[in-house]
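Our preliminary data section would be incomplete without showing what the modeling component actually yields. Below, a chain of 289 amino acids is followed by its predicted structure, encoded as tokens that our downstream tools consume directly.
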Amino acid sequence: KLSDITRNIKTEGTFPGFSGSHKGLYFGGSTPSDSNVIQSVDQTSTGNAVDFGDLSAAHSELTTGANGIRALAAGVGTSVDTVLFASQGNSSNFATLGIDPRQYGSCSNNTRSLFHGNGAPAFADTVEYCEFATLGFKADFGDLTAGKDREGACSSPTRGIWAGGETPGGNTNVIEFVEIATTGNGTDFGDLTEARRYPCGTSSNTKGLMAAGYTDQITDDIDSFQIASTGNGVDYGDLSQTRYGCGTLSNNVRGIFAAGVTPSRVTTMDFGSFSSAGTLADFGDLVEV
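Predicted structure:
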């Protein structure tokens, strides 16, 4: 029913028929040794994460994308792993990229996941993409406005956003975007409130959030911006803990920020509503960091 679809979108940020739409996944991490654990949370409630399965290899700097059916995790070399939300278990190979992405340089819609091949000292600008429906598919998408590393990313159904990060000249505050349905190079969007590396990005269909990171010190600041327009980030609020290197996930109602370095590693998960601003609330804890 249309009324059911409307209710799900407004109250839960989900769409009927997407079997994994309540579920969010965190891949890998550092305990401080690299981990292969995949952890699962229910985005519509609060509580601790539970074990979902294992990656094909342990890694601490994965970059991920998902639609309501499949999740992809890249960064174990050039390999892209995949799991189905509805089938709890271990990951399997989905595709092999021509780049070696890591950290947070990915964004996606229901059709495509875009991966940025970042990593100092190369500071690459290349973006490649996979089609969720086509096993083994990958192709060149375009280039970012500059080579960078450790930037945050988020997306709407139409646009992909990259923000902040580190360039050969130091931290950057640049926000740029692409149209996901086409291919092409990044275009200037605006600036974050401060230049920082390791910001962690998440978004609803309309609003993007870039949280935490490292300026000349660890920060808990969160910037927000409207994805459909262009412009600078504005203050949204703060994480419950000053940290960087968080993992993120979201539905269309709330964003969740997990783990990070304070400088000690933490299992904390925070969440906030896209419709309001302020300090985030406690969600629960990860199984491990």
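DSSP finds one helix and 25 strands in the chain. The helical segments are 2-12. Preliminary results of this kind motivate Aim 1 of the renewal.
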